[in-house]
Amino acid sequence: MNEQMLNAIVGETGLFTPEQLEEIAAALRNPESEGVIPTIVRLGLSDEESVLRAVASVLGHEYLDVSELPVDEELIQKMPARTVTQFKVVPVSFDNGQLTVATSDPFREGLEDALRLATGLDIALVYCPEEKIIRQSQKCYGVGADLLAKMDNSDIYDAELENSANKFELSGDGQEASIVKFVNQIIAEADRRAATDIHFEPMEKELRIRYRIDGLLHKVDVPPTLHRLQAAVISRIKVMANLDIAEKRMPMDGRIGIRVNGKEIDIRVSTCPVTYGESISLRLLQKGGSVVRLDQLGFGKRDDTLIRRAIHRPNGIILVTGPTGSGKSTSLYAFLHEINTIDKRILTAEEPVEYEMAGVNQVQARPDIGLTFARILRSFLRQDPDVMMVGEIRDLETAEIAINASLTGHLVFSTLHTNDAAGAFARLTDMGVEPFLISSSVELVLAQRLVRRLCPHCKKEVKPDEALLQSQNVDPSIFRDRVIHGACGCQQCGGTGYKGRGGIFEVLHVTDSIRQLVTAHRPSSEIREKAISEGMSTLREDGFRRVFDGFTTIEEVLRVTEDSDD
After folding, report:
1. Alpha-carbon torsion 15, 17, 21, 27, what sign?
2. Cα(344)–Cα(353) distance, rounded to whole angstroms?
3. Which candidate, 544, 542, 543, 555, places its Cα nearest to that of 480?
4. How does pLDDT run across 71-85, given as a tens digit for each residue?
């Protein structure tokens, strides 16, 4: 399409001034231009959907949101997966010998002819944003369907593993490259969907892949033929992690450093032998990602005051408790970021180092060579620190060193695995720490959970489910005359009604009365009751505060606090 015709179509949309049309035309003259609509979006002159709707009207085509269309197996057979990926299109309907196809590029010359040649059918085009087309194609064909389709099925089982070189080869041209690209595509898609984990799980008749997004697992749509390539996929991941691909009987751990979507990602790899092969779990960590600031964590006014006062103390222990995946490390990094000034020497012992912080001396624990938390802490005491952070207190030796450090003028941050804040004292006692040492050193205990955040694009006002509240021993009257929101589901949040996560907290300030109970070795329930009487909000109560703020739902709070508010 020549420049004059293109200008006429874009100009007829009525979205742009003559000056803007000239700016678009000038940008498109660049040989490296990404295309008409991406250029308009990049220049900030309009959004993709608005341009597509307007161009569709000018050219007499339909605009169609394909993201809500069901999967039609017969329709999928009309167009090869490689065609869908190559041209970034997706079939949407078939009627009277004509295949209707959605595209995000109305200006691509020869598109209809290319699709007609690939399918042998008459083609009608409709327009839809690229992101929605990609999501629909993945739902219909599966992630990486085009890559797997390139392989000759008759050769799939002829994988030859070369243990000495720690590489694998597949018979047939391009098969190895396709597996490499497929694994990269799975990781890139996980990053795009903000997944924290990827699980490859061999089943009897499928290789199931799941992403953990906002704390919950979601199955990834993949082609059914992937099961036949299971050995090659697993081998590829092990090669990337520098693991022995011939060892299939023992669990192994490794790491992968990869650049995805313009970002450096550090991936922790764990393998485990299971009934139908090897299960592999990948934990995705953003290398050099931005640290969440203290004021972004979402504390209430009382808790925020207590936290800020505690982290600016010259000595003592601050503990963050909660199950795995509850955001403890994020909170610790936020504390360190708040107090990371030129006049403080901060040292951390971590396994692994999840975020790199400028100005902080971070040490990676290596238990396999004897570099444990306890050994690192001992070394820290000879390094003239002001603040020390240890990833987790797991044993008596680490606990005693941390306590001694706090009693000799150091501020210590660490984590414990307990259900609530009051349980931290019993946990330390169970390790063998004397109660009087605990009461003398611990200044504050923070328990936390992560709740999914309501999607701002589709959340709606709802009435509380009184039956659900009563079943959880919650008085429905606390929600009376309050605006409550519920999850709905839209394209922006992938139909879940939630997008992102945030914390709910229980902040136990160790007052003199709490110290007396700890020293007397009183049960956690008694310590908890005393803390509540002194103003502590429980996890569930703080969660309801977030519900009133419109951040999350009643159902989310009840889901994540079942183990702490029984």
Report:
1. negative
2. 20
3. 544
4. 888 888 898 888 888
- Rounded distance, CA 200 to CA 4, Å? 51
Identify the CA nearest to 382 among candidates 351, 410, 341.
Answer: 410
480: left (phi over 0), alpha (psi -120 to 50) or beta: beta
The token pair that represents 417 in the structure block: 């695995």
SS3 of 24-55: the string is: HHHHHCCCCCCCHHHHHHHCCCCCHHHHHHHH
Separation between Cα atoms, residue 220 and residue 204, nearest integer Å = 17
CA distances from 279 to 275, 390, 560 (A): 9, 30, 27
pLDDT of residue 4: 66
Gap between the Cα atoms of 266 and 346, Å rounded: 23
pLDDT digits (tens, 9 = 90+) for 42-66: 899 989 999 999 999 999 999 998 8
Distance CA 166, CA 486 (A): 51
What do you get for the CA distance between the two ends of the chain, in Å?
Answer: 68
Distance between CA 362 and CA 351 in Å, rounded? Answer: 10
pLDDT for 535 equals 94
Q: 474-502 burial by CB neighbour count: b if 16+ within 10 A, else e?
A: beeeebeeeebbbbbebbebbebbbbebb
Q: Which two tokens stand for residue 360?
A: 């902080």
Bridge partner list, 93: 100
Which tokens belong to 49? 């959907």
The DSSP H or E segment spanning 335 is: helix 328-339
Query: What are the residue ranges in the chain where pLDDT is below 70?
Result: 1-5, 7, 146-176, 287-290, 563-566
